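User: tokens in, sequence out, please.
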């Protein structure tokens, strides 16, 4: 199947209808749908599931004509309060560097609209698949960087302003690009066609008054 045919046949709406429930944020049960590079004609594929209360974000990256896999979940309006200082994740990684995504949920053909960027931060992981040792990572809201599908214009860069209470979509991604737009190194991404695995046991929004989490052991 050619790239143009893969774009036409990619059914994002069906993916959203078949979202898989896993995890909870505040009082909202989260349901996750996949959005892979097939939307742009790529051949990568996510196979995500709930495994004993863990969100398993797994699949295969194919860098021939693409290079990303992601899962997204809708957030109710105002779910993240204005005093949110960070997002705390607990997970078992595979040594790759993933990304946290937040957006207001606006859509374009390939993701967030030109007027509403995706805000991203890197999630570096250790390969703990054998030991199943969990890591805890707290991502400050101030570290999130805006990202546009085809790169920002000078005006868009100046106008970009993060409002945590306006975020209505949260996601996890493995991509050939890091949150600052630089290449994800082979050592923390991969090359050619390769599998990946990130198992997330919790996602929390940390208010400014919260005490810091205990330091995780590697």
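Assistant: Sequence out:
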């Amino acid at each position: 199947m050619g790239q143009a045919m893969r774009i036409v046949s990619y059914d994002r709406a069906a993916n959203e209808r078949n979202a898989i429930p896993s995890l909870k944020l505040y009082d909202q049960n989260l349901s996750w749908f996949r959005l892979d590079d097939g939307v742009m004609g790529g051949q990568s594929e996510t196979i995500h599931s709930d495994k004993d209360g863990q969100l398993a974000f797994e699949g295969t990256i194919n860098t021939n004509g693409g290079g990303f896999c992601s899962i997204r979940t809708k957030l109710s309006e105002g779910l993240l309060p204005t005093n949110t200082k960070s997002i705390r994740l607990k997970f078992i990684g595979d040594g790759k560097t993933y990304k946290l995504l937040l957006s207001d949920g606006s859509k374009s053909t390939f993701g967030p609209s030109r007027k509403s960027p995706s805000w991203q931060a890197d999630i570096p992981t250790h390969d703990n698949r054998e030991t199943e040792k969990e890591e805890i990572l707290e991502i400050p809201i101030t570290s999130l960087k805006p990202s546009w599908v085809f790169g920002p214009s000078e005006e868009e860069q100046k106008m970009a302003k993060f409002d945590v209470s306006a975020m209505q979509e949260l996601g996890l991604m493995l991509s050939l690009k890091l949150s600052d737009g630089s290449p994800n190194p082979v050592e923390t991404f991969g090359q050619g066609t390769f599998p990946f695995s990130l198992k997330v046991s919790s996602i929390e929004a940390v208010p400014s008054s919260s005490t810091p989490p205990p330091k995780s052991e590697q």
